[in-house]
Write a structure and sequence with these properties.
binds NADP nicotinamide-adenine-dinucleotide phosphate; seven-stranded parallel sheet; two-stranded parallel ribbon; alpha/beta; Rossmann fold; single chain; 11 strands; 12 helices
Amino acid sequence: MNINVTAATGSLGSRVVRELLRQDANVTASVRSPAKASDLAEQGVTVRRGDFEDRESLVEAFADTDVLLVIPSLAPVEVRVGQFRNTLDAAKQAGVGRIVLVGFAATSPESQFHIAPFYLYAESRLRLSGLDWTISRDGMYLDPVADWVPELIRMGRLPYPVQKGRVAYVCRDDLARALAAACLKEECSQKVYNLTGPEALSMPELAATISRVVGQEVPFDLVSEEEFVRICQAENEPEEMIAVLTSMYRAVDNGEFANVTSDIEDLTGRPPETVESYLRRRWEEQ
Ligand SMILES: NC(=O)c1ccc[n+]([C@@H]2O[C@H](COP(=O)([O-])OP(=O)(O)OC[C@H]3O[C@@H](n4cnc5c(N)ncnc54)[C@H](OP(=O)(O)O)[C@@H]3O)[C@@H](O)[C@H]2O)c1
């Protein structure tokens, strides 16, 4: 079986490729910039140019593909819609068997998350495409929390505009294991998976966990959206990304990330890592 991974130079895609290679799969990487993928080629991966903006490049990149893992880019909604249309059209033309779509937990018509319209569109278009499909709705990444820990220590607080919401954080390593399994297992056809961590933490619980890991108090600080925006601006986040992040924390308070499932363990035979275990691992690597 030939598995083709889009966005394979990214943080998630490269982990899925590594997991597939570990399981001796035939892997092709469809990437925007093949020059960035020399490490993948060295590992025996077939690297092809596949730019979501260039339909013809995708048709060539998707040749001889049984299962195509689609990891959308981080572009704004309208751009992503065009990119996904290109991807589906090219997959059909290239004769792809099944598409595994990397979606997001915040996918409902009531979602507060600004990118939800893209995920609604993508899921619906895929189901109606005539291609075989699997949909993964991924939980919120835990990795950026670990990246932020040194700055949190400097600030002496965990500032989020979240009053009551809980988040079943999940790390990219566990998502990659589950996505690799979803590509490899034919029984995943026409199924939706909700890939979450093993527990849903409130923000005070997350702050207490960080404090235990780093050995000093980093209390939760409930901040207004305006203050959260100022904090992000001080860290040079682009304005578009700040708007996306702010809407994501509204979605947290809307309960959109609190669901906990056993889907990662069901797919891989191993439970996902807890927040404390992951943060400790990252802290000890520093
Ligand atoms: N679960 C969460 O909390 C969460 C958070 C953030 C994002 N996400 C989602 O996770 C996915 C990516 O995550 P990531 O962590 O791997 O991000 P990342 O490390 O920033 O990788 C983004 C990837 O998209 C590729 N890309 C961008 N534009 C492209 C184009 N026009 N054609 C083909 N490839 C293109 C990039 O290629 P280059 O190397 O050439 O730039 C790169 O490989 C996205 O679908 C995003 O919506 C999830």
